[in-house]
Amino acid sequence: MARNKKQKVRRPRAETPKGFRDYFGADVTERAAMLRDITDIYTRYGFDPLESSAVETVEALGKFLPDVDRPNEGVFAWQDEDESWMALRYDLTAPLARVYAQHRNSLPSPYRRYAVGPVWRNEKPGPGRYRQFYQCDADTVGTPTVAADSEICAMLSDTLEAVGIPRGDYVVRVNNRKVLNGVMEVAGLVDPDDADAFAHERGIVMRAIDKIDRLGEEGVRALIGAGRKDASGDYTDGAGLSDEQADIIMDFMSARRDSGAATCARLGELVGGSTAGQEGVRELETIAELLDAQGYGPDRILIDPSVVRGLGYYTGPVFEAELTFDILDEKGRKRQFGSVAGGGRYDDLVKRFTGQDVPATGVSIGVDRLLAALRETGRIGSSVAGPVIVTVMDRDRMADYQTMVADLRNAGLRAEMYLGNPKDMGRQLKYADQREAPVAVIQGGDEAARGTVQLKDLALGARLAAEIETNEEWKAQPAQVEVPRDALVAEVRAMIARADGGGV
């Protein structure tokens, strides 16, 4: 009788889901440090923290994502047991609208909050584009004055400088959707009797304006006209605007002048008799005046008609923070780093829940992009110092080693005892290197009898190995010393201080 062959076990593949990523030690600690700097500024401006659910009803989230061709209009959604639809939040603003509408009777007005956390978008992933990423928002709900918008812009400027982006390496650009709507009206792309008329054409125009830095004026004019063929031969249908209509849009895009006042004056000419457009220009004038009074000149914050912002819920001022220094792309070509934050006024978002006008404005920082920018320019470390490693020489003296670890931790130092196989000291030191430990503590029976410990300065050892060429130089700078047990904490702290300071 033939033996049954043992059925092969099918094991799951150990791989990260498409469009997602794993965050390891330095990724997490550097992000946390940067977020502390950001939220310190938010707190200084009077914003309070809020943590809301990562899951919202699809009804509460609304339909505001630009990538509407994806399933569920760009969100990760599922049907609950009661047949209601739930989804992972795609940003931190839509949940704020729900929270404010739900708790408005117990919240101060205006309500100023900041929030930090991951968001999820069911979009096509690509290089540097993930389906999960972190945002850090600050919003003011309940005030119609554009003083709130100017404050957000000033705070964004202060935040970038606080995390290490100096003046000259960034600019906060400000525009107003009302001005853009006024220009659309002048160009004949608005029907006062039908809000949906020309919506398709307006969408193409807005996306084209948003691509001015990449496509240039010629490429944008092609997109708002008959269409555009790119370098690969792919053709994109245009908005079909006439030459006269296209001239109005292109004049709008080139309206920026040397000062906010001059830019606003030019925009006032372009929007003509449009009521919405003139209101938007007045709002930009007020923002420029308020920022100028606080010392935020065009070297930090400027009025720029090319700022559009993709989400559909913006109703007034919109702003974007762009890093202006050059980096090398994957092909070795120079390019500017680009946008790391954006936001604007969204006066209709809470109204969806309450039926009442509730003005709001805010900003969202792309945490992963800003962290990548700081790394790109060396303004944040690429690694984080690991713990001091207390090695294990004798199994029957584990309590002694744990006591050393406790002494180091109680002194505020990061420390751990090696918990692997204690027989191989080489393996223990290799582990210490992998953990990027600054110091290894060694105590065998002889040292214990003398009341001492050996301290191996791993940071110094690595530096010496790279720099010292002769045996005499090596002897003059020992990387391992024996110190009294009761001096353990002081000597370890001194070694770490020397490593941090770069001294020997």
Automatic annotation (TrEMBL):
GO terms for cellular component: cytoplasm. Homodimer. SUPFAM superfamilies: Class II aaRS ABD-related, Class II aaRS and biotin synthetases. GO terms for molecular function: ATP binding; histidine-tRNA ligase activity. It holds the Pfam family tRNA-synt_His. The keyword Nucleotide-binding applies. Coiled coil: none annotated. It comes from Oceanomicrobium pacificus. GO terms for biological process: histidyl-tRNA aminoacylation. The gene is hisS. Residues 1-387 form the Aminoacyl-transfer RNA synthetases class-II family profile domain. It catalyses: tRNA(His) + L-histidine + ATP = L-histidyl-tRNA(His) + AMP + diphosphate + H(+). This is Histidine--tRNA ligase. PANTHER family: HISTIDINE--TRNA LIGASE (PTHR11476:SF7), HISTIDYL-TRNA SYNTHETASE (PTHR11476). Keywords: Aminoacyl-tRNA synthetase, ATP-binding, Cytoplasm, Ligase, Nucleotide-binding, Protein biosynthesis. Belongs to the class-II aminoacyl-tRNA synthetase family. Its EC number is 6.1.1.21. It is found in: Cytoplasm. L-histidine binds at residues 91-93, 121, 135, 139, 309, 313-314. It comes from the Bacteria. It is an enzyme of class 6 (ligase).
